[in-house]
Write a structure and sequence with these properties.
- With about 300 residues, the protein is an alpha/beta fold.
- The chain has three domains: about 5-85, Arc Repressor Mutant, subunit A (Orthogonal Bundle), CATH 1.10.10; about 95-160 and about 265-295, D-Maltodextrin-Binding Protein, domain 2 (3-Layer(aba) Sandwich), CATH 3.40.190; about 160-260, Periplasmic binding protein-like II (D-Maltodextrin-Binding Protein, domain 2).
- The protein has helices at about 5-20, 20-30, 35-45, 65-85, 100-105, 170-175, 180-185, 200-205, 210-215, 220-230, 240-250, 270-275, 275-290, and strands spanning about 50-55, 60, 95-100, 120-125, 140-145, 155-160, 160-165, 190, 215-220, 235-240, 250-255, 260, 265-270.
- Strands 7, 8, 9, 10, 11 and 12 form a six-stranded mixed sheet that branches. Strands 4-3-5-13-6 form a five-stranded mixed sheet. It has a two-stranded antiparallel ribbon with strand order 1-2.
- Helix 5 links the parallel strand 3 (about 95-100) and strand 4 (about 120-125).
- Helix 1 (about 5-20) packs across helix 3 and helix 2 (about 20-30) packs across helix 3.
- The protein is elongated and about 75 Å long.
- The relative contact order is 0.16.
Length: about 300
């Protein structure tokens, strides 16, 4: 029995064939142009036949490509039906794993934007800092904050991030000093245990005694923000988590200096999620949470 080509090669072929464009297919699949091209060439090698006629300005299906595309339409539609509905009659659920801070400050406030859900499926949000393997079923979709690209069937960079100080207006008023250098020397400094204040203070050119820099540290950025909202001090917060709090006026930013994060956010998805309407809708919703100016190149 001849081996069946991997589904990600078939999906790449179907997308290019539908759109008659490698670049448009790459955009729809959230992959780089070269990745899509490599997948098409891999499929052509497996089938031992050319599927596209390539030119500098256009791409067209060969006779073999047209035949294959027609043959694949019904099976792919059937796969969407199978994976988009639960055979046992239970409501299908898209399981999203995300860092507790991102789940609380980004996903939950934006749930109302995940609208037009068709009846028969829902979403579960699982806050976790553990390593997650979407390919083995730990979750369907995951958002991770990492220095290097995590391994997954589908992985794309969601956004870069940066640190800068924020505080509640009432706390700054209570300090009784201008919201400048004097504030940092008088305030309690709140931070994540993995992101001390010193790098930001050095970049801003602000000298603060080492003992005061220790302040209060937490292992979750969400608690850092809770402390700031509770008038406990000035927090070193991440842009991705504080943008809504700044917009509402609950927190204000101090100064214009920002410290780039060494980590970036990545969006991971299992193979099943890549081919189901539910998975694609949830992934599009998560992408919408990333400000355009914070998104780096995807691959």
């Amino acid at each position: 029995m001849k081996a069946i080509p991997p589904i990600h090669l078939i999906l790449a072929f179907d997308t290019v064939a539908r759109l008659c464009s490698f670049s448009k297919a790459a955009e729809e699949l959230h992959l780089s142009d070269s990745t899509v091209s490599h997948r098409i060439r891999a499929l052509e090698r497996l089938l031992a036949r050319p599927l596209f006629v390539r030119s500098t300005r256009a791409v067209a299906l060969t006779v073999e490509g047209v035949h294959l595309h027609q043959q694949l339409k019904e099976p792919l539609h059937r796969l969407q039906q199978i994976f988009g509905a639960d055979g046992a009659g239970q409501l299908p659920v898209v399981r999203i794993s995300a860092l507790p801070s991102f789940a609380r400050w980004r996903l939950v406030p934006a749930l109302s934007r995940l609208d037009a859900q068709p009846p028969g499926w829902g979403v579960e949000i699982h806050p976790s800092i553990d390593t997650v393997d979407v390919d083995r079923g730990d979750a369907d979709i995951a958002v991770r904050f990492a220095r290097t690209r995590p391994a997954a069937y589908h992985c794309e960079k969601l956004m870069d991030d940066e640190w800068f100080p924020v505080a509640a207006p009432a706390y700054l008023a209570r300090l009784g000093v201008p919201a400048g250098v004097a504030a940092f020397r008088k305030a309690v400094l709140l931070s994540h245990t993995r992101q001390p204040w010193k790098p930001w203070l050095d970049k801003a050119g602000i000298r603060v005694a080492a003992a005061r820099q220790q302040g209060m540290a937490f292992t979750d950025t969400g608690f850092v923000l809770d402390a700031a909202l509770g008038l406990q001090g000035i927090a070193l917060g991440r842009r991705s988590l504080v943008q809504d709090l700044l917009a509402s006026g609950a927190l204000v930013r101090l100064g214009e200096v920002a410290l780039p994060c060494e980590q970036s956010y990545y969006l991971l998805a299992s193979e099943r999620m890549a081919i189901t309407p539910q998975g694609q809708q949830v992934m599009a919703w998560i992408r919408s949470l990333a400000p355009p100016d914070r998104v780096s190149s995807r691959a």
